[in-house]
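== Polypeptide entry ==
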Amino acid sequence: MLRERVRRRCRALAARRASPHPGGAELTSRLARALAVGPGRLVVDVASGRGASTVQVARETGCDVIGVELSPASVEIARQSAQRAGLSERARFVEGDAESLAFGDAIADGVICECALCTFPDKPRAVAEIARVLKPGGMLALSDMVAERERLPDELRTLEAWVSCFADARPLAEIERLLAEEGLAPVVAQRHDDALATMLARVDAPPTLLENVERGLSLVANARRALADGALGYGVVIARRT
């Protein structure tokens, strides 16, 4: 089953090394500000990886942040990072699935999700879970790869391309529709293709494909061409729970 293959691959590769996301810490800061949270508030970081953004949001906003990550190894690395930063009381991490968040309804003042929706096998279900845990009026700050999938080259449609964020990326307008259908009203929707171009210019191969350098180099080259052709890009959506 494709869903389980993607999940297994993501879990196996997630902790191999830190994966950069377009825009880096600067874009994360912008997303954190969009959440409009502060001390005493709770944010959920969906697909938190090694915890860099979770720690950053906790530090910059003063709020509590819970990172949810599929990989147990990444969760442990994230906990160590929070401890080193002196933020282990406010930046906490749990192992979990974005498509089945282990939280009650309406518990979060904000949700952040960076460069991850494109990897979720069941995107509507993941969006429904995000909407469920957000309080009415709470904000979602989402950044993600965007693509016109029918225009992507075959090499950007493989399982490796999926877990490297290319194969199942959706158009920005489709992401907006997915959110709106679950009561997450977009208030900002922007393309940040320059952030993706900068990241692709700095990497020789996706971190998830370092075990096969030739395939990694080819994947990056195809991504650069797709970006230049307008078939691939990066987007940000800020939405409010209605």
User: Anything to note?
Assistant: The beta strands are 42-46, 64-69, 91-95, 108-114, 134-147, 184-191, 232-241. The chain has a mean pLDDT of 91.
